[in-house]
Amino acid sequence: MKEIKELIQYYEQQGAFSSPTAVRQLQTHLTTVEHYEQQGAEDKAKKHLSGFKLLLDFHAKHMTKEVHDILQQDIDALLR
Question: CA–CA separation, 32 vs 55, rounded Å?
Answer without folding.
Answer: 13
